[in-house]
């Protein structure tokens, strides 16, 4: 029975991957205002081409989700979210924009999720307010300090919609993870001189990576690891300071 389910999941992943790549390809000119919505839907109908990169990624992630979480509702709603996360990652990386259409899609998924978890509705609403609120403050403060856009409003809307989908604790951990991942990758890019200090690095891909991590690793475990790391770092720094004070 499990083999049959994995076959069905694999076929679904292939189809979803094809759709995701096709949507991403046509959403980019829509984001850049090179085409309107009418032309967008015409292109969707006429210009379909096979591309198996997305399908391969989704085959791995879909089957891993099912293997870890089993045959439960969250497995399938996460699969639906993964499709749009790939689109967000690619578009934001390529053109530094996140289409409003993806926020609408995530919000619809969030409403479906809330219907099946109505007892946690307050947690989801707080998640939306927290995720959107934190990034709105960051975007506003960075604009005041830098006099230019430091955090796009697309990131604010993305975090609000993800908060509505995942709840307050998960969105806080995603915020933490995305900044850690962003800092690490930013430092690496500066070291290998792929970016200079004034270059804009899109933040959407870091959020996407953080969300995918949350799907496979519980937020409580991530928080425990982070607290343990901070505690260890604090101990090391204390020992170093004590050593130099003795000298």
Topology, please?
Layout: H1 2-31, H2 37-46, H3 52-69, H4 73-95, H5 100-116, H6 121-146, H7 153-166, H8 168-191, H9 204-216, H10 219-246
Helix pairs in contact: 1-2, 1-3, 1-4, 3-4, 4-5, 4-9, 5-7, 6-7, 6-8, 7-8, 8-9
Order of helices and strands: HHHHHHHHHH
Class derived from helix and strand content: mainly alpha
- N-to-C CA distance: 68 Å
Largest sheet, in brief, is: none
Query: Globular, elongated, flat, extended or rod-shaped: what is the shape?
Result: globular
**Fraction of residues in helices?**
over 70%
Can you walk through the features of this model?
Helix content is 82%, strand content 0%. By secondary structure, it is mostly helical. Helix 1 (2-31) runs parallel beside helix 4 (73-95), helix 4 (73-95) runs antiparallel to helix 5 (100-116) and helix 6 (121-146) runs antiparallel to helix 7. It is globular and about 75 Å long.
Describe the structure using short key phrases.
mainly alpha, 247 residues
Summarize this structure briefly:
With 247 residues, the chain is mainly alpha-helical.
